[in-house]
Amino acid sequence: MEKLIINSYEEFAAHLGEQLGISDWLEVDQERINLFADATLDHQWIHVDVEKAKKESQYKNTIAHGYLTLSLLPYLWSQIIEVNNIKMLVNYGMDKMRFGQPVVTGSKVRLVTKLQAISNLRGICKAEIEFKIEIEGQRKPALEGVATFLYYFE
């Protein structure tokens, strides 16, 4: 799917209720998980101890941190949409966020998005984006929710 290019609030609003796009697949490997563990100081064995996970985990492998999965959202989002003519973009919040199932190391994930709501708050574009981070070959998403962004158009 081609990246959506937005230049104004009106262009953004024209996509209300539509799927905005789907990102490419991204592999979540052990190196990425280890780096995230170092950054967050969360070294729980289910994420970083490959040998123990093979023996003791129900997944027979390590799994990504839920917040690592969430942290991929900006990277995957940037593959779907390019918003021009803005001074600033602010993450405003997350609603109805649910971790549906873990991302087993070596799995590939992608982002699927839909513009759920949009409003003009005195020149600030408030966009509520329904999102799902899907796991390749799985029916249930790893993560879903509504992300709210504030776009300050010039």
UniProtKB/TrEMBL annotation:
Pfam families: MaoC_dehydratas
InterPro entries: MaoC-like_dom, NodN-like
Alphabetized CDD domains for the sequence: NodN
Domain MaoC-like: 12-124
PANTHER family on file: MAOC-LIKE DEHYDRATASE DOMAIN-CONTAINING PROTEIN
Name listed for the protein in its UniProt record: MaoC family dehydratase
Provenance organism: Hoylesella nanceiensis
